[in-house]
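Model: You mentioned two targets. I'll fold them one after the other.
Researcher: Yes, keep them separate.
Model: Target one:
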Amino acid sequence: MKDILYIVVPCYNEEEVLPETSKSLGEKLKNLIDKDVINPKSRVLFVNDGSKDSTWKIIENLNKENEFFVGISLSRNRGHQNALLAGLEVAIEYADVTISIDADLQDDINAIDEMLSKYYDGCDVVYGVRSSRKKDSFFKRFTAECFYRFMKWLGVDTIFNHADYRLMSKKAVLGLKEFSEVNLFLRGMVPLVGFKSDEVYYERDKRFAGKSKYPFRKMLSFAIEGITSLSTKPIRYITLLGFLIFGISIGMLIYFLIRWAIGATVVGWASVACSVWAIGGLIMLALGVIGEYIGKIYLETKARPRFLIDKKLLDIKFDDI
């Protein structure tokens, strides 16, 4: 018999898209079951991330109407990454393989077929990768390209043009559970798990309803989270910058001594003021970067739970599997 698949869908204020999303995913699941690609016990797991609208009510109704749909609700909003991890950890208790996908269905669900094919060929992780960004605005395309290149430059190992649309086997998810950090950046953590992996390319559509949950401000915050969670290069660059400025100051000192020796000293208030402002700005920048890392250490030492589950719509018993 084929393996059990759970499609994990994090949801935050998704009442506008859930009816269409559930319809598409339900049809895809049924189609895969009919083709004997996956086990009939496969499910779509919706994760309510503390939504303020009727998202959870819709999930409850879907669960009553169709056995394909199950769900969990977190005690409060914990963010996309925590909600996704919560769904994966719950799903893997029942499933052999999981696929994570956003509720807006901008990611092509037809890529699931190829993902499962690669899984049955022995891959534990299959990344869904965008083949192009032609449908994005220039600003979105430019900032996204900068995001991935900047992350790579700072030593964060991510898959270019990959968000959180991926397949993970039970072994891979259990491996991910071994990572205990509170500050999550799954796009960088999953490659650290290792195991055999591959990529599937697809065209991404525009969001058909609702608003994006990742405006520029959140994307910037997300980038900082990823960098400070997975790379220490910013601190190393500050050290190198410190050596560079120290070297320049020594050179300037020698230059001024020579000027003094030949009697060509001229008082330069502008240069002094610029130097003070420049050094002061660099010091503040350095303190800010170091502060980000200290803040991460502070949160990690508290070891607070990454999420708490308030409600479950999982009427499946382990004995049934």
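Model: Target two:
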Amino acid sequence: MQKVAIAGIGQTKTKLKRRDVSFPELMGEACDLALEDAGFSEEDVECTVLGSGPEFFEGISEPEHWCADYTGGARGSHFRIQTGGTVGAATTIAGYYMVASGMFDAVLVVSGDKLSESSVQQGLSLVYSPTMGRDFAGGAPSAVANQTRIYMSHYPQVSERHFAKIGTMMRKNALKNPNAQLHLKNISEEMMLGMNWLSSPLRLLDACPTSDAACAMLLLNERLAEKLNRPLAWIQAAATISDGVNYPDRDWGDPVALKEAAERCYRAVGITNPLEELDVMELYDAFSSQHLFWYDALGLCEPGQSYKLIEEGVTAMDGKLPVNPSGGVLSNNSIGASAILRQAEVALQVMGLAGPRQVPDARIGLAQGWGGAIQFHAVMILSKDKDVSFLRDERRSDKSANGEGIHA
């Protein structure tokens, strides 16, 4: 397997409604920006991997054919990925394996949606089984509200005040991200708690907006990437896990698929303490309460203790492990682009190109994607350096400083 680097990133202008472009034009905008960022032309790309949400959102079958003239698909190999909310992450992972395997040297990945042209919650309700899924077939808000109530029943220390803290933190982060849709300058916990109910215990600003957006990235093998005189983001590990929803004894408060995906990536990279060893995270937080579930599953704390990370500011921009410096999905959500944006934002961080939202000295970070009800998860770890042996070296240094013996 070859090492693979992200060499170019393109994020479109994001709005509630992009009336100035069609869906293919939106996807093409992201592709053009990514190629320009890397200094590549369309002729240099051997393959395009395109992702989007369910075809219900576009109102057309096989949208990759519709987009081919704008995304380079008419020139070379062209693939489509569709894995619900994780589609953006899965699109990059598919492109990663195409390059890592040696099938292609340069692959363009792009994913996005124009949610302004669809009835989003109707689509998300119709995907559930009318028999097995009827308890939560009220769109994403009802499903996550159900999940949140179950989690709160396990850990009664968690309250709506924690959701308000998370939502406020994310919207303040978004003020430094020109690509975020929501820029709420007067956001506060009191404002969050004063909003109307969406689906108890979630209020209106506990949920993400709907956006028109796309994101593209250029993936290169080692030979091509190392010829470029520019910062790179190296993909160190990736995993996708799909789990069941309603099998007997299924606990919606325990995202086991995310646990497994994270553990696979940690083992591949050699991470033993993610809170200490990662520099930045970008999580798929379509709802504020999800930070708590995801922190638990990603091993940042003992189960049920994630609320303490929020109270102590551990995941704030000036905390030990900044989470979602971009403002996350709570500030920009097109579904199709949401998970690839998490990867792109971590890539920008380790490249040192994140601008006002830059985390100082970020060398390694994690991006997560979520889809379905609770069961679909994707994790990717990216780093500034091709070799991540510095993780082992830093642990050795810490042990030496503490007077502990070092054993090979």
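Researcher: Noted. Anything on target two?
Model: Residues 134-209+236-395 form a domain with the Peroxisomal Thiolase; Chain A, domain 1 fold (CATH 3.40.47.10).
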